[in-house]
Amino acid sequence: MPKMGDAMEEGTLISWHKQDGETVKSGDVIAEIETDKSNVEIEAEDAGVLHIQAQPGAIVAVGKVIAIIGDAPAASNGSSTNGSSTNGSGTAPKASSPVQARTNGAKPEGKTGSDETVMGGEGAQYKMDTADDKDIARLAPTTHSKEETGPTENMTYADAIRLALQEELDRDEKVFMLGEEIGQYQGTFKITKDFLEKYGPERILDTPISEAGMVGLTVGSAMMGLRPIIEFMTLNFALVAWDGIINHAAKILYMSGGQFNVPCVLRGPGGVGVQLSAQHSQDLAHWYANTPGLKVVVPATPADAKGLLKAAIRDNNPVVFTEHAGLYRTKGDVPTDPDYVVPIGVADIKREGKDVTIVSYSRGTMLALAAAEQLAAEGIDAEVVDLRSLQPLDLDTVINSVKKTHRAVVVQEQWLFYGVAAEFAAQISSAAFDYLDAPVERVAGAFVPMPYSRVLENLAVPHEAEIIAAVKKTLERSA
Amino acid sequence: MAASPAAPAKRAEKSIRSRPALYDAHSVSIPTTSVDAVIQSLKLTDDQLRHTYQQMLDIRHFEEQCNRAFRANKVGGYLHIYIGQEAVSLGTLSDYQPGDQALSSYRDHAHCLVLGSDPGQIMAEIYGKSTGVSRGKGGSMHLFDKAHGFAGGYGIVGGNVPLAVGIGWALKHAPEYKGKGNICVCYLGDGSMNAGGFHEAMNMAQLYELPILFVLENNKYAMGTSVERSSANTDLASRVDSYAMAHSKVDGQDYFAVRGAASPIIAAMRKKPAPYFLEAVTYRYSGHGAADGAETQSTYRDSAEMDVWKERDPLRILEQNLRDRKVIDDDSHETMDKKALEMARAAAEFAENSPVCSPEELTQDVYAD
C-alpha cells in the first residue's frame, strides 16, 4: 500500500483491474485504492505475473503488500518484499515489486474494466471517506419515498445522475451538455463517461475554462429553445459566472415580459468536502435560492437525484442542480422507469417521527437521518423532512410536520447567517408559532472560510452530534 | 466633497490634452467607401434607399422624442440615447432575414426600431406601460421583441456578449435552425471590450465557428472614460486577433460604409458559419445617459470634439448622398422628415394613453410554466 500523503496511514482496496495470475505490463493500471481524500489508481511498476495478496474491501496499512508482480507462483501470504528487489536469476523468482500508485490527475488510459467510478483531477480531491459517510452509505438505501416507482436498481448517486442525463439526452434532441472535461476526458467525476462517443460533439461539448462564456452559451441557446445542461466541474467555479446566472439567466423571462424563457440546468458537485480548504469546500445553494427566477434543487438520495434531475431538464426555467460530491458514492434503489420524475418543489419525509422535526437537504438530510437513528436508540423519535429543493420551497410539508412534533431543528452545511435555517426558522415561527414548544434550532457550519487543517475543519462542519444536541435542546426547553 | 472649484476643470483639461486628434479611429486608418460601388454591388433601388433614409429619420426623431419625454418626467430610470450612431445599427441590420437574432447593450432603441418593432410599443416600454414590448418589465434598457428577432437589450456592460455565443450556437446546431443560414448580430460598446466575459465569448465564438457578427459601436467613450484612458491597445478591432477572428473597421457615420462592409460579411456567414468582428467608429452626440448633461460631459470631452463629429452626422451624410443621386429632393425630404416626427409623436401618444401596469402583473413571468 503506497503512501499517498503525509497523513495517510491506511488505504482501502476498492477493486482490482487485473486478475490474479494475469500478466501485466509496466504502467498498466492494476488496482484502485481509496485514501482519506481521494481515489487513486495503482500502476504496475514492473512487468510480470500479478499475484494478488489483498481482496477488494480490505483496509491495508501503508507499506503492507497488496500484490506481488513476478514470474513465479504467488509467494505465500504475508511475505513482505518491502520495496526491495532482488535481481533474480536462474529459477529464483524474478524481481517482485510492490505496486505503486499514481494519482488520477492524468487522463485515464482506456477502459478500466471496472464498475467503480474512477475520479480524476478535481474529482479525486472530492472523495470523502469519513465516519459520517460510512453511515450515509448505509442509510441511503433505507430512505423511503412515497412515490410509486416501479422496478428499481441499486446504484450510486453519481450513476443515478448519469442515468437521468442519458435518458433525457435520448428522449429530447434539444437537450445537450457543455462543460469542462465532460467529453474526451469522460468527465471529472465520470458522470459523462462514454457520452461523447454516444452523442457526438454537438451534444457533448467540451469547453475551455471559461465559466462566463459557458453560461452565456447556456443562456443564449436556451433562449432559442434548446435545453442546455452545463456541468460545472465544481459549483465553486460558477461564482465567476454569476453575472450570467443572476443577472441574465434568472431575469430574462421577467424583463422580456415573458417572451424569452431560459430552460437550462446548471449542475455540478458542491458542498463541503474533506480538506479541500476555503475555495473548494462550501455550500452556496441558498445564494441561488435567494434569486427570483431560479429554481434550486438539492437532492440527498440517488433516487431523488435521478428524478429531480429529469424534472430539472424538462423544466422551462433555469434550474441550479446542486450535487453533493460527498454523496456521489452513496447507493440507493433507483427507479429505472425513464419517466420517473420527481416534481421540483415537493419536500419528502424521509423518516417519520413524532418528537421533533429535523429539516435539511442534500448531505444534511443524511446527517439528519444518521442523527435520528442515534436518537431513536435513546427513545427520541425524530421526523426528517428532506426539502429536496430550496426554490420553490415546500412550506406545507415542513409546517405540517412541525404542527405534529412541536419542535424543529434545521440543518445546513452553509454558514449560519441569512441561510436556509434562518428562512425556515422565520417561516415556522410565522406559520406555526402556536404549535411550537421550543424555539427553532439551527445547526450550521461555522462562520469561517473552510480551514484546511483536519482538526479545524471538523470544528467548522456540522456533524450528527450537533444535530443531536440541538434536538435535545428543543426537548429540554419544552420539558 | 471638499474639492476646490478649480479641480474638475483641471481634470478635464488634462484628459483633453492627452487625447489624440479629434476625429480618428485611434490612429488607425479607416478605408474609404465608394457610395456608388455599394449601391451597385448590392443593387439598391431608389425605393430601398428612401426606405433606409426614412428609417434613419425615424430613429433620430424617436430618440429626440424620448429625450423630450424624459425631461417631461414621463420616463423613469436611465435613458441612453442613440443619436449620432444611427448608421451603425441600420447598416448592419439591413440584411436581416427572418430567424436572424440581434441583441445589444442598453442603448437599444434603434436596433429594435430597425428590426421592425412597433414604435408605439417601444415607447410604451420606455414609459413603463404594460403595452410595451417587454410589458413594462424591462424599460428603456431591456427592450425585447421575439417576433422581430430582437433578443434583448442588456444593462450590464459586456453581459450580452456571452449570450450571443449561445444564440449563435443554437442557430448553427438547433434542429429548428440548422442549415438555414441564420445569423446573430451582437452589438457592443468599446467599454465592454475590457470585461472578462467579452474575451471568453470571442474565444468560444471562434473556437466553435459560430455565425455571429459582433458589431463594436466604438463611440469612443465608456460612459465618461475614453478609449485612450481605458485600453492599452486602442486599435480595438485588432484585439480579436488574439482569438484568430476576422475583423475590420468602418466609418460608423456613413451608412454606405457600414452596409458595404456588413453585407458581404453576412452573406459569407450565412453560407459558412464563422464569427466576424466589425468595428464601427462612431460617436454619441448625447451624454452617456440622460443624466449625463453638458456640465458632466465637459469633464471628459470638449465641445470642439463634438463640433468635429457633428460635421459627420450620419443623417446628414446619408441625406447628402441621396440628394447627390437625386433619390431625394427638398420636397421628399420634408415629407419624410414630417412622417418621422409624426411617427415619434404618435408613439409617445400611444405610450401616454396606455394603461399602467396592473398590480397582478408584478408576479407574472418570474417563472415559466
Question: Into how many domains do the coordinates of chain A divide?
Answer: 3
Tally of individual helices of chain B: 14
- What low-confidence regions of chain B span 5 or more consecutive residues with pLDDT below 50? 1-22
Instruction: Give the count of structural domains of chain B.
Output: 1
Which regions of chain A have little confidence, pLDDT < 50, spanning 5+ residues? 73-121, 124-138, 140-144
Gross morphology of chain B is: globular
Query: Which word captures the global form of chain A?
Result: globular
How would you explain this protein's 3D organization?
The complex is a heterodimer of chains A (479) and B (369). By secondary structure, chain A is an alpha/beta fold. Helix content of chain A is 29%, strand content 22%. Chain A has 15 helices and 22 strands. In chain A, the strands form five sheets. Chain A has a seven-stranded mixed sheet with strand order 11-10-12-13-15-14-20, with helices on both faces. In chain A, helix 3 runs parallel beside helix 10 (302-314). The model of chain A is unreliable at 73-121, 124-138 and 140-144 (pLDDT under 50). Chain B is of the alpha/beta class. Chain B has a single domain, classed as Rossmann fold (3-Layer(aba) Sandwich). Chain B has 14 helices and eight strands. Chain B has helices at 6-17, 35-41, 46-71, 86-93, 109-114, 119-126, 160-173, 196-207, 227-230, 255-271, 294-297, 303-310, 314-324, 330-353, and strands at residues 101-104, 150-153, 184-189, 212-218, 221-222, 225-226, 246-251, 276-281. In chain B, helix 8 (196-207) links the parallel strand 3 and strand 4. In chain B, helix 6 (119-126) packs across helix 14. Chain B is globular, with a radius of gyration of 20 Å. The N and C termini of chain B lie far apart (51 Å). Residues 1-22 of chain B have low confidence and may be disordered. At the A-B interface, helix 5, helix 6 and helix 7 of A face helix 7 and helix 8 of B.
